[in-house]
Fold these 2 entries.
Entry 1:
Amino acid sequence: MTGQEETASLISSSRLDYQTTDHVNGAREVLDEGLEFVAEQASVAVFENAMANDQSEEEDDTVEVGWTRAMRTRHQDLSFYQRPSMLVLCTLLVLLCVTESLCFTPAIALTMKKICDGLLEVNDAAADLAKRECDPKKVQAIMSGITSLLSISTGLIGTFMSAKWGELSDRIGRVRVFGYIAFIKIFGNAIQLYALSPAVRYHKWGIILGLSISPFSGGILAAVAIGNSYVADIMESEHRALSMSIMMSAIYASIGLGPMLSGILINMFNGNNAAPIYFSLLTGSLSAILCLTAIHEPRHEDALKLSHTHFMERKDSLSSSKPNVKVAATLFSRTREYLRFCSLQAIDVLSPVKILWLKPTASGSLIPRYTVVLLLIIDVLFLCMTSASMSTIVLYATYKFDWRAVKLGYFISISGLGKAAVLMLLSPAMLYALKKHYRSLNNSIDQIDVFCIRLSMVLLTLSTLIVLLDNENESSLFVLAVLHALSAFCSPTLQSSIIKYCSKKFTGQCFGGMALIRSAVMLALPPVFLMIYGSTVSFRPEIFLYVISACGVLAIALTFFLRIVEDNNVLRRPSEVALNAPGRQDVSQVASRRASTAQSLRQNR
């Protein structure tokens, strides 16, 4: 039996097992996303053709389940370091995240040193720079301006790239995209090292440009999005929440380990702040080599072709809308056509977010759509209480309690490594206990998900209230870090809950859409908290904590509006009904066909 016939056999057998198991549950794994490229037609013949295309869309989703299981069977005989697994994924993510987090603190120190040298060079070019000191207020002012510009540029770049990387991983593979991200991080860190080198003269825009290369990798959020897609490729739905928790624990540990390892390297090399950046080049190179040589792709090659087909159809549809300036007679007409084309391009950039706006079910229910929207809002509020406000909390600690590098390092380590420990040890035990009392659902949010989300929001709200009630004691901030660590399972629970409602062939786009929303939030909210803090620091520096507490109360309230649906018939898509209607081809006949190319999936029967 050839490899292709073996794959087809595995697909057919796994598909038939899947149908037998889930038929009683109303074909719960069958999801419909519709065809964006199907135009509106008036004739009955074309209408029937469109219905056939809708059915093929369902076939894509069910066949992709078979592809996933076939790939797991194919990889069983590989070595442990080659076989797609959580160990391989976590190792790769640790290398990528450490490559980025190693540069956090050295970049700040090197930039301030560069600014100081630049000020001395301008004021007195003939003076011995090593024997002079520059005005710290001027350094802080320039540093603040550079940081603000970098925040805007890196935020915009990261927002769009995090979504694009997720979509690209659907078409060319998760491992290949991880390799591209590693190369961008290596190149960005090398340019950053050159721009901050003592051999290069100070130039404000040169520093900004040098520090704006790495964000094209999409940052931590892109790594999380592609990692979640990787988990969806290798794990069944009932195991994804735990697997995503393990993955997030590796990421949090890397974020906490990076600054600590950076300090150790600086001390080892006699205070050389560039040493961690050199070491980041080694970790980035190692991750790139692993992606090119050892790690195997978890996504089936036919699934990659199918995703690429969908992309090309959308691209062709967008190209057909390109304005014809020769046809447009007036300047107004040409301008209008050009703006229309630009708006379509902008919409295409945001296409991963559109995937998260789900269609009504066959019964007309909007519960899946509203549930996903509620979960996204809760995720935004979660970011408000954690990542988006963390820079303001650090400034509050330096102002209120005069914290410096040592205590700030302890604070970051407790938060980062604590989250890793919670996700690695506490979260699995808690999920095991909850599954004994509550039923786990594959197609809807369940009691386990709601409990985890609500508990996390209560802990986060409590942490902020403790700081407000005991704002004269610095230990309250360490309590905040501990409670933040205990709420770490909220993020993977939210994302695994959202993906239950999304199509399996668009997992990369779904996670990319979530990453796009999270990046936009991280672009907009940190400056808002900093603005509130800056305007109130002279009389009530803790005012911003009341805003965070209000976000927590709102998030807790929203969890009571989440609808749990145990009846899979309520969640059935319109095309699922069409599949089982009289005169339609049986799904088992579809599953027995060999799914070799995207074209064969879409042929009319």
Entry 2:
Amino acid sequence: MLAASCAAAQANATWTFTYTGFHDTGDDVFLPDRQLHGSFTGADGNGNGILERLEITSLILNGKDFVACEPDSNDYYICGAQAFSYTLGGALSFKAGEYGSDPEGWVGGGHYFIAGDGEYMYSYRPSHDERRAWLWTDKTGLVIASPNPEPSTWAMLGGGLLVTAWAARRRGARGG
């Protein structure tokens, strides 16, 4: 039981990260305080040292989970994480976003992120187009915090330890 709990403790983990400093193309200025906050949850199931798209259960960028929104996609709204890769202790790469339009295609918009490239927003309607982009530069910094096990993992570990302690106590009470 303890071994199973320890294995589960390594299963899913959550990493948090922050990118800081972007070039605002709308105002043509570097914004040193602009941030992109994110997190991702998953496990390196194939043990290759790289967390890949099919191994994550969550990718949150500025508060929106681009894995959780995928089932909401339809003919007029697409949401999801198209690509993801994190080399454990190293490089982070992702492409995620959402976009949509009315059935005729007259009104629509989108918001997407490409790590190492930019955050993009656009909207359109008859006689109006709007686009914004915040681009990565050589001054853009990245901080990734150590992974935290999922709350259910802690519960399983605690349960496993309780069962182990109870079994040891029973053996001790029986004298062997």
